[in-house]
Every structure is written in structure tokens, then in C-alpha cells.
Amino acid sequence: MRLQPIVYTTDVARAVEWYAAVLGAEPAYSSDSWTSFDLGGATLGIHHVDGLPVRGRVELSLVADSLENVLERLNGHGIGAAGPIEGQPFGRSVVLHDPDGTPVQVNEHH
Question: Model pTM?
Fold first, then answer.
């Protein structure tokens, strides 16, 4: 599994310029709504939203080979609470909640 924090922004170009300068790296992928930086085993995502519900919102996202394997592991530990698996333009995702209720999105890419 790979760690993928996501920074939400209303201005992708501005955010990408800032993160590129801070990281000293160019984006590995870029589109109007999503830009990612590969950072030695982790990926930082910059994602466009029309409005920010909370200023500076960052979301924890993980990328897995198989959502079913992740859910099976959780069920094996008696931790079966998860939202439905949803189709996404990049593949599929499911939202889990840690013991404190923090949402963690787990993605499976095509």
C-alpha cells in the first residue's frame, strides 16, 4: 500500500507552483483537477474543489492493489465498518473511519 495525502485547493495552478517550489520537484502527473508529485514511495495529490469546507483541508488517502483485500483484512480483525465501494474516474474507492472517526479514503487505480 502507498501513502497519498491529498491537499484540496480552489486554485490548482497556484498550489502546484507553491508545492513544486517547496518540494524542489516537478509534478509527475497534471490535469485541470488533479496534480500529483511522486515522493519516494508516497504521492502528494493536489485536487481542485470549487469551495473549501475547511481552510487548508488535507485528507489521508491510501492506494491499494485490491479494495477487497483491505476490507477482508479489516473484517478479519473485527473492524468491518466501511462505506460502499464507489466507482471513480481513476478506478474505485472506499472510505473507512479510524477509531476516532477520522475518514481515510482507500483507492484502487485502474
Answer: 0.68
